[in-house]
Amino acid sequence: MTTHTQHAEQLSTTTLLRFATAGSVDDGKSTLVGRLLHDSKSVLTDQLEAVEHASRSRGQEAPDLALLTDGLRAEREQGITIDVAYRYFATPRRRFILADTPGHVQYTRNMVTGASTAELAVVLVDARNGVVEQTRRHAAVAALLRVPHVVLAVNKMDLVDYAEPVFAAIAEEFTAYAASLGVQEITAIPISALAGDNVVEPSAHMDWYGGPTVLEHLETVPVSHDLTACHARFPVQYVIRPQTAEHPDYRGYAGQIAAGAFRVGEAVTVLPSGRTSTIAGIDALGESVDIAWAPQSVTLRLADDIDISRGDLIAPADDAPAVTQDVEATVCHVADRPLGVGQRVLLKHTTRTVKAIVKDIPSRLTLDDLSQHPAPGQLVANDIGRVVLRTAEPLALDAYADSRRTGSFLLIDPADGTTLTAGMAGASFATAVEPEAAADDAEWDF
To answer: What share of the chain is helix, strand, coil (3-state, %, to 5)?
Structure first.
């Protein structure tokens, strides 16, 4: 029998996959998640008993596995998913963090939240309905957020007699659409979440399908969140100066490495000032180390005394991002109040927050056909569009295509701290061409 210690050691050596699920209303997304949790033995006995009791009280003979994920009372009563639900589970091969996102159009912003850190997105489609507008919307959001892997789960195959031509037609249409958006890898799997076909166990009803089950794919897909291969970036969170008898001259810069790796002796640039130095030491967990990498939290010590504070970015001298006050980005507006041209906002990028103004909103994306609606004037909740911003102070901003960590930002209402908009710097889709920079406005007052 596996001991608790052995199990803990086993988990520590397995990789972690963050993935998000998305699908139109009633596509069976919560049932799929429930089936994954149930069939991978990730559900506690009392949870399962509660679900069985709730299902019986609703007149259902079999347990409604969707109830394992729909935790809010309103979700259970209406039979829909409203908020992003995070679930943690593990198999002997891998650990998982699952973001279960809502299907309704008005909750597009919730999918942006759930998929923003995901390495894989599972997009559900009802085999009877095929690719619908909401399917295209979810594919577009996954493409915008540069999610490396997309799984098309064609659900409810039991309701179309497990017919291969139905699956093949849906898979072909979705793959062509997602590929046109620049999605790099698409895997299509025919399933029945309700019956359990191809979710955890292979289906006896679809011998024409020779690919992996959903869980097999989740367990074996290459996890590409090796942040050490990215451009090295270190946003400073805190300056440590103990000024004690033991450490009279200690000056360290604490934070979490956002991407890449740093080594003692490496030449670095501090942004936005542009001052250069070399790394004299790296302290991690109270010990000096020669190298540190993302996502470790460490303290860097530099050879020179430079004026550095929270919000500054330390990067390799030969690979530092450009510093700019003009930001062009694709954004998803998440607040109920609109975002308009001329609006003053706070822009939060890593540990740095600066004042900014919305100079222009060149276009709003129509997700059903990916057309650009020019000059909408404002963005309302769940809108995805292009914005041009001018910041009061320079920012060291990467393109989102190069770094999801240091290419993303938030726009915040300076009056009450409400998050207004989630932004991704640079081009929209992988296949998109960056529009020409907006002309400077002579009336700009920063």
So the answer is: 20, 35, 45
